[in-house]
Amino acid sequence: MSLWHLAWRRFLRDPVGVASAVVVVAFVVLAAASAAGWVARDWSDEVGVSYAPPGFLQTELLQEHTREATKALPQEDYGIKDPIGAELAAIRKSLTETSQAEAKHGSLVFGADKWGRDVVKKAIKGTETSLVVGFAAAGLATLLGTLFGALAGYYGRWADDFFNWLYSVFTSIPYLLLVLAVAAVLGQKGILTVILILGLTGWTGIFRLVRAEYLKHRVREYVLAADAIGASDARRMFAHILPNVTHVVLVQLSLHVVLFVKSEVILSFLGFGVGVDTVSWGSMLAEAPSELILGMWWQITAATLAMALAVTAFSLFTDAVRDALDPRLQ
Amino acid sequence: LNSYLTRRLWQFFPTLLGVVLLVFFLFNWVGGDPAYILAGKIASAEQVENIRRSLGVDQPYWVQLGIFLKQVATAEFGVSWSTNERVSQIFATRLGPSLTVLLPLLLISTVLALAAAMLVAYFRGSLTDRAIMVACTIGQSVSILVYILLLQYWLAYQLGWFPVQGWGGTLGENLLAYAALPILVGVIVSLAPDIRLYRSVFLEEINQDYVRTARAKGLGEGRVMWLHVLRNAAIPITTNVMTQVPGLLAGAFLIERFFSIPGIGREVILAVERSDFPVIKAVTIYVAIATMIVNLLADLTYRALDPRVQLK
After folding, report:
1. pLDDT tens digits for range A10-66
2. How far is CA A68 from CA A54, A73, A92, A93, in A?
3. What is the ipTM of this complex?
4. Which residues in chain B have their CB less than 8 angstroms from residue A300's CB?
5. Which pick of A27, A161, B122, B262 has the fewest CB atoms within 10 Å?
6. Is the pTM of this model over 0.95?
7. Which residues of B touch A270 (CB under 8 A)?
8. Are B251 and A174 a contacting pair at CB < 8 A?
């Protein structure tokens, strides 16, 4: 029975792992559906009134609104009749009526943002952005880290010196500072920029682990045997050793998805991430400070819930995968 | 040990040179022509040319690199592009507020995390342990932004326990009024990852032979945990806390930004927003140097605390 079979069996025996895997798959499917345009394609349509409250407490809030509207205004009697009093009352009445009608018409489950866009659709679109950035950046970082680690660990000597030097250079600058510095230089915004920023700066952790694995493996008998039958360096590196370190790489890939999803949220919040033509959990949170003061809690709640659920599931999934692939750690 | 120190100090230079080259590559090569950023939207060709000459960017790259190396060597990075304040002056005035928040934050969060981690490590596998670990996982998955936003809104805006933001004149006023909520937020945010990390350190120590020996000779559980285990676990934990400091210096920028604390982190964000390259360059170089020095100090501390460690 192969390693993967055994790992799969161990994984299935872990209920937390299986449950988190289900949630992760659900998020990936949701993001894929959003990317394909099946859901949340019209997220930027202004379907409701500005700051429409969530639909599930619509009735209560509406009643409150009506009560406030019908409450008698304090009588300001100066002995003069307000010349436009009647008109004002009419306008006020029509305003509350139309807003009620519109809010009801929109009937958005989680309310609307400042422009009347559906918060649920924004959160779904944000899921797509976050997962695309997370996976692509983690893929890039893993690719770089694995390649550098393989070269450094396999060849040793000057290659090892060079990549270790590069590693010490990148790690002597704190991660978020490095990310911000690259963001400052690149200037332009967009998903691709964020992926490049995070991927090009985030390879160091993977490099160190992969390098250590290659150092260990390059003197093992199977590699010496491959050398003896004339396998080239590249073949030994990637056809023989790489499959034996895949478990390390996979766990790191998963860990970095979580790390980069979180970093993307911060970058987008600060305005250095995705542009205004798309939405991310970070840009949803960026609208929250002014909304909170007005008592609009639904957008921050939606973004936080979506992110917390996705990241928790992904973290637990990573732990389960690691335990399944490397049972000695338990 | 002397030869070790010499060698480590000698290793500083290639790394520092690498950082300088990386920063130079980013800002002078990838970053494009700064004259257009500086000259503003409506600029004549002469203006742009003048700025290029005064910055030295009309020179070939190796001359520019020479200018930059001189800046690094003399720690004089010129003036900020947006405020004309001297960069060294910016640093001198921003370091204090940053440290006022960071040092208490580090101290409190470390002590709390140590106590909690010891508790869960002692009761490992129990319901308490698992509940706290699950809470940590969930707590870590909520963005730091949400913690800052909600705590600031709730404790400062709604309840009015703290000022919403701002910074005072004296250290006492800052510590008691303005820095209190930022410190609280920072402690809450760093608890979850710290507890997870320290728990694994404690678990490793608890399974060691000396713990069994201590128990076998009849020591109480309190003595075993607080004296024997804590002392041994303190070695990796001390170095971990030390190496966190430089990263926090720039990494607390979200807290500094939200609470309008005039520290280094907020300066970095402002500089990135304004494309203020001299400030970002200087911060990157300084923090990198600080990181290297702290890493060396951490190694030396490790050696001092644990004589078994051989530094090669």
Report:
1. 888 888 888 888 988 998 888 888 888 777 677 777 666 666 666 666 555 555 554
2. 19, 9, 12, 11
3. 0.80
4. 146, 149-150
5. A161
6. no
7. 269, 272
8. yes
